Amino acid sequence: QSVLTQPPSLSGAPGQRVTISCIGSGSNIGAGLDVHWFQQLPATAPKLLIYGNNNRPSGVPDRFSGSKSGVSASLAITGLQAEDEAVYYCHSYDTGVGGWIFGGGTKLTVL
Amino acid sequence: EVRLVESGGGLVQPGKSLRLSCEASGFAFSNYAMHWVRQTPGKGLEWVSGIKWDSGSVGYAISVKGRFTISRDNGRNFLYLQMTSLQPEDTALYYCAKTGYYDGGREYFDSWGQGTLVTVSS
Fold first, then answer.
1. How far apart (Å, rounded) are the C-alpha atoms in residues B81 and B113?
2. For residues A60 and A105, what is the distance between their CA atoms, to the nearest angstrom?
3. Do A89 and B45 touch (CB under 8 A)?
4. What is the dihedral of CA B114, B120, B121, B122, to 10 degrees?
């Protein structure tokens, strides 16, 4: 069981907007620690999508955005495209375990 | 271009040891903290260990503490993970990841290698 809780799966039609939630606790997100997001396409390494809650690395489309409030964070994808079908992970640091933690991943299906 | 290439994975019996390597290129390796992250086949990601740029601070997941040792050679641009007393639950794809910095020193994992597969089985 992951310290950061994500929905196991989500789906959306092309062009739609979807939001992936990541719920933490007072020892990670709620403690003011930032959230980062990765996209993992089948048989590939994770790719950084968002760092520091809402910053996009160069090359990441502005269809992807992140936010954080309280003990949770969200990744929003607008204008859903077939190429967005992947597993998405949230990532942060936890002061309780004294190490980095990941969410369990959300498999996004584009209908 | 940042390039991270892991090696050293393979099939190993329970209780045995293995050393993973990660060769880094395309950036000033000695300036960045580095990490190992593993992924069980079909499952999610688990942080394994991390090391600061100067090896002055290291960290381990509870699941590997006391069995795994992380190290680095800044002269050769290599990151290592020495794994001992391996168990079937250590079976995973092991990635090395480079740290990026923002906002005056906050860290995130900005680049990943393609991984090396470790299988622990008799």
1. 14
2. 19
3. yes
4. 130
Strands B3-7 and A18-23, how do they pair? unpaired
Cα B8 to chain centroid, rounded: 11
Distance between CA atoms of residues B64 and B58, nearest Å:
13
Backbone phi, psi, residue A69, to 5°: -155, 125
pLDDT tens figures, B1-15 = 999 999 999 999 999
Q: Which residues of A touch B109 (CB under 8 A)?
A: 36, 38, 48, 91, 100
Q: What is the C-alpha radius of gyration for chain B, rounded to an integer number of angstroms? A: 14
Cβ atoms B100, B106 nearer than 8 A: no
The verdict on B42 touching A (C-beta cutoff 8 Å) is no
Distance set, CA B53 to CA B30, B60, B99, B100 (Å): 6, 16, 10, 12
Q: Round to whole Å and give the CA distance between A24 and A105.
A: 13
Q: Tens digit of pLDDT for each residue in A16-37? A: 999 999 999 999 999 999 999 9
